[in-house]
Amino acid sequence: MTTTIVKKKLAPRDNGAPDFKKMLHPLMAKNYGKWKYHEKVKPGIIKRVAESGDELYVIRAGSPRTMSVDTIRKICDIADKHCQGHLKFTSRCNIEFFVTKEKDIKPLIKDITTILGFPIGGTGHSVSNILHTQGWLHCNLPGTDAAGAVKALMDELYKEFINERMPQRVKISTSCCSINCGGQADIAINLQHHHPPKINHSNMQICELPKVTAICPVAAIRPINVEGKSSLEVVEEKCMYCGACHGQCPSMEIRDPKTDTLSIWVGGKSANTRGGPSFMKLATFGLPNNPPRWPEVSEAVGKILNAYKKGAKEYERIGEWIERIGWKKFFEVTGFEFTKYHIDTFRFARTTFNTSAQVRL
Amino acid sequence: MAKEKESKTPMLDELETGPWPSFVKDLKQLAKRKPELEQALGQLEDSYQTNTNHWLGTVLNLDGYGGGVIARYSDVQDKFPLAAQFHTIRIIEPSGWLYNTAALRQLCDISEKHSAGILQFHGMTGDILMLGSNNEKTYTAGEELMENGWDIGGSGPALRTLACCVGPAYCEMSCFDTLGLTKFITDTYISELHRPELPYKYKFKISGCANDCANSIQRSDMPIMGTWRDKIQVNQKEVAKFIKENGENYVVDNVITRCPTKCIKLEKKKIKIDDSNCVKCMHCINVMHKALAPGKDKGVTILLGGKRTLKIGDTMSSVLVPFMKMETREDWDKLIQLVRRIWDFWGEHGLDHERVGEFIDRVGLGTFLDGIGVEPDPQMVKHPRSNPYIKFEEYTQPRIAGEPKESPNVVDKEVEGKEAAV
Ligand code: HEM
Ligand code: SF4
Ligand code: SF4
Ligand code: SF4
Ligand code: SF4
């Protein structure tokens, strides 16, 4: 099938970022940098008040992130009808609609919920939409899905999205391989591999072998000769199953539908508030990769959220709550088992040990 | 629930129920007029049934660009020939992910015409993702996007598409123009974004204050966060109102005792802050946002070196420039120059696939600061070193054979003078 493509003149290159000024709602343009305070109206609705006295109501709706053009056009219809043709997406894939009068909120929400079926919420001390990655829909590396896992989990957490009844905001992310592009979160669900890559020697010529060798963080990959052809081998004792090599070379297959599992991590935080940002830590592991609804994951996340809701003080993020009560108590109240695998073995492991006589008894 | 007896996607269908909006329901509807999507969903169903992924990655570039297209080939294309090529185009988003509907509708039209009609708002880096074009349509989509003023996002060892919080558009916490700076950096370094020339990826994320709504600190190489260096603005009338509404104990339990540096107290129902010891963490302002506000002498803190798990594990960014004004064009240019010095030094000495944070770990922050011409500052560390193994340059022995005394660092630095330090 050779179609001759007539070379047209190329479109301009290096346009740069779109002009955000054209995207601003008129009240945003008018009050740019001159906002005074905000007020919660109810979950999902925040009133923004400018120094000029102008009021902007921001109504937040959850979205599935992956959407058809049909759905996006419906979103546009709603924004045209109610919001002077402006809207915003948030860093957690929610959509924000804007109205300027309190009385306009109700009809807007009616259209969002009936036409789109999107829930209103995700503000303040709620469980917001889950940050997720590409998964089986589009990445070349995943051991599990992303959009489906999020849909299944958000079905369970729906009530926590539309209400604000957590001690503090809760952010969740998922990642479908050990590269973890989903990011740090209060609760993160990540895929884990359990053996070194299986090398497809016959297919080994397509990549740059030195690059694959160099990418291994523990120097476990070395060149060998297989039937007269150069290839690679992995020193299995050194390999930590991170999959970095697989990202570089598809012939280093790290995934395994039979053995890959999911693990849950807690206590990540980006905000610099109070104790500052923190990394998440291992809570539990070995959950089955069980599509289409991953019920074991939902159950474990539910345990964490229930314990957090019961035990945390207001304004404590999950990591801060655990820090206050101690990990011993965390494992007690969630029922997860603490094992030797929870003890770090990588760089800086010793900095994670309890180097004091301070213990909770 | 009279489902079709022989659904081709029984497992995916289970994701059509439940209260959260279902991407399966949405995409199945679209698949009725997009046969390539129907096949992609068929392939996805296969993945669900076998726990096996079916996309292979490859490289596909638009004329003049070295990245921005995430090319995917199906490894089961005999079964799903229409989804054999199913690429994603990354498109630079408007700062703050703000849109007017005309822009969104245009994206829909281009997506419908040239791809499977799936859009993702947004990728984890920040881009708009347009899914499902084949080789040829990827080119035509790219041309039509650029014809209409859009531009392609970054991938590979290049500057990546930037992202920022909503900032001054509606947030009163914002300490600088996050939206403007994001566009300025993007436009200034647009060639570095399109033509991979760095050791590895370089991400900026930009937040108007330390609440870091752009998740910059551990998801970007160079987080830029708003801050101030004068006093927190206190409105004692609103403080009194807050105390009246919530009680004094509430303020003590949720504001005073939560301050990380214990620099805020309640005296005779008035808030008193030792601003010299405030670390601008935003907590008190978040809780009492009508009574307290960031100071007036605003600027940014610049950090460096954050990244996600791959290879060495996650790293948090750390402070590079404790405070810098970010108001005028000159301020912005200063930042651009700082970035250039970092790219030059890391570009020259960094290893292939080495993020800037990994590079700093390898050569040492002190050496790195020398290399980019920034003076060390105690705000860059939690505490000074506690181990005694220091190689003082001043005491380095002359090398054998009478070579001149030389610093053991990896750099031959050109002395840039102190004014280079921001
Ligand atoms: C070739 C295979 C890969 C695919 C298909 C892929 C896909 C993606 C996609 C679609 C995104 C969101 C993109 C955007 O918003 O523009 C993303 C983000 C990300 N990717 Fe990849 N990726 C790949 C390889 C990698 C590798 C090798 C790494 C590790 C260094 C990595 C680390 C990340 C991280 C950390 C993010 C999140 C970035 C952020 O939060 O800003 N990815 N990836
Ligand atoms: S987490 Fe891994 S598999 Fe999932 S999208 Fe990111 S790189 Fe791909
Ligand atoms: S999986 Fe990771 S540790 Fe194992 S060989 Fe590959 S890169 Fe090295
Ligand atoms: S980071 Fe700060 S300025 Fe930006 S949206 Fe969040 S609270 Fe507002
Ligand atoms: S901003 Fe943070 S450090 Fe400063 S006074 Fe408020 S709580 Fe304390």
Describe the protein.
- The complex is a heterodimer of chains A (361) and B (422).
- With 361 residues, chain A is of the alpha+beta class.
- Chain A has 3 domains: 30-116, Alpha-Beta Plaits; 135-193 and 257-345, Sulfite Reductase Hemoprotein, domain 1 (2-Layer Sandwich); 198-253, Alpha-Beta Plaits, CATH 3.30.70.20.
- In chain A, 27% of the residues lie in helices and 21% in strands.
- Chain A has 10 helices and 14 strands.
- Chain A has helices spanning 26-30, 69-82, 105-116, 135-138, 147-162, 209-215, 244-248, 295-311, 318-325, 327-334, and strands spanning 35-42, 45-50, 55-62, 66-68, 86-89, 94-99, 172-175, 187-192, 198-199, 221-226, 229-234, 252-253, 261-266, 281-288.
- In chain A, the strands form 4 sheets. Chain A has a 5-stranded antiparallel sheet with strand order 1-2-3-6-5, covered by helices on one side. Chain A has a 4-stranded mixed sheet with strand order 7-8-13-14, covered by helices on one side.
- In chain A, a hairpin with a 4-residue loop joins strand 2 and strand 3 (55-62).
- In chain A, helix 5 runs parallel beside helix 8 (295-311).
- The longest helix of chain A has 17 residues, at 295-311.
- Chain A is globular.
- The model of chain A has no long low-confidence stretch (mean pLDDT 94).
- Chain B is α+β, with helices and mostly antiparallel strands and 422 residues long.
- Chain B folds into 3 domains: 10-147, Alpha-Beta Plaits, CATH 3.30.70.2500; 163-227 and 297-380, 2-Layer Sandwich (Sulfite Reductase Hemoprotein, domain 1); 233-293, Alpha-Beta Plaits, CATH 3.30.70.
- Helix content of chain B is 31%, strand content 16%.
- Chain B has 13 helices and 15 strands.
- Chain B has a 5-stranded antiparallel sheet with strand order 1-2-3-6-5. In chain B, strands 7-8-9-14-15 form a 5-stranded mixed sheet, with helices on one face.
- Chain B is globular and about 75 Å long.
- Chain B starts with 9 loop residues before the first helix and ends in a 50-residue tail after the last helix.
- Residues 407-422 of chain B have low confidence and may be disordered.
- The interface between A and B is large, with 116 and 129 residues.
- Strand 4 (66-68) of chain A pairs antiparallel with strand 5 (118-121) of chain B, so a sheet runs across the interface.
- The complex binds protoporphyrin IX containing FE and iron/sulfur cluster (4 copies).
- The site of one iron/sulfur cluster has 16 residues of chain A, from helix 7.
